[in-house]
Amino acid sequence: MLTLPIDKAVPEMVLALPVMHPEKAGHILLKPGCVLDERSIERLKEFRVRLVSIKYPPTEFLMRYASPAIMAEQSRLAERVAGEIDRLATSMHADLDFDSYAVGVRSLISRLVDDPTAAVFMQDVIDARQSLSAHSFNVGMLALMMALKLDGYLVANRPRITPKRATNIENLGLGALLHDIGVTRLGRDVLARFEKTLDEEDEDWQRHALLGFEMVKGRLPATASAAVLHHHQRLDGSGFPRRVRGFGPPTALRGNEIHIFARIVGVADVFDRFRNPPGRSPDGTPLRAAPTVRALKSTLELVRAGKLDAVVFKALLTVVPAYAPGSVVGLSDGRECIVSSWDPTLPCSPTVLPLDRDLLSDVRRAGPGALLLAPGEPIDLVERRDLRIVRIDDQDVSKDFFEPQMPGEFDLRLQFSSGLTEGWDAIVEATLAAGGKVG
Known about the structure:
By secondary structure, this protein is α+β, with helices and mostly antiparallel strands. 39% of the residues lie in helices and 8% in strands. It has a domain at 67-323 and 425-433: Orthogonal Bundle (Hypothetical protein af1432), CATH 1.10.3210. The longest helix is centred in the first third of the chain and has 23 residues, at 68-90.
């Protein structure tokens, strides 16, 4: 399997994975096994498809990171999310089908548990730059994938309930999928202003967290509702919404007052916004998606600034490779390579396979090139400190390299509770008082 920008696709390449419609959740443009021709490639470009995964026998082992069953489940849930959010956005009186969401979340969790190796976030199911529903789905998917890596941390941060209940993440999935539902109740002028300025201090835009909570309270369990309400809270107290507590000005939650579900959704939300920035270019088209490594580095800066949960970020690194397996990257010595594996503790230094510059045009359906022109010997970039990845998908990433500042900074095996559990009782009480349910 090779994952290529659409501009590098050539006729006779064979698709290894389906090509999803970038703007319509659940719609497949081309199925696996389809042989590309000039017409199909041009059509994919017209649909603004960014990447295609093609068959390449020497790297067939990379297919272990891709599961048709998971992709199908993702597609079904993404279609459900898109339909519900579009309905809410067009009718102030529309009501959410919460049972449908719950069924979809349970089914997706089951698929992820059954095939953990394939539970790697490599491509959008739909282009998150295009719609609220796409961003909502991505955040839901990321939150679930991270939570499955955080069993011990969930138990440590939810000490008042049994370990079995503490590691039940269905409510997290519901809250994550609906985290931005309040945006559907903002005026178009507010949304246009935010898209132009990206000013998170805009109080009109900040209202979406409270509006979303009002839409779900009493209908979702308190843990899911609180994720909707508090996904913009920051550990240093710089988030929102703010509330009056005793005397003095309103303040946001901080540190151990923020429930673990809200912290997980917060990391997923920030990362996806960095990867798929809102706004448009001067010609009116959506801004280009940022390389994953750049979005991870930007998220890390907020972690190191004390705003986001460091352990949750470690989980993000285990499910989101800085350079996805199968990607074609450029090294600092000029060689093109295929990413074959990665170590989450050193995310910017994967193992790569050198690729002959003429090989891409020879990966053909009937020709022998894909079998004869195998990649060169693996290069472990952890050991080759003189080499770095400087390009992916024709984007310069030479300044996006990052590495741990201390031993174990990115090692999820080194978890700690951080004492971030106190204060949750107050949130539950407040949610109950507002009409929410605990569960």
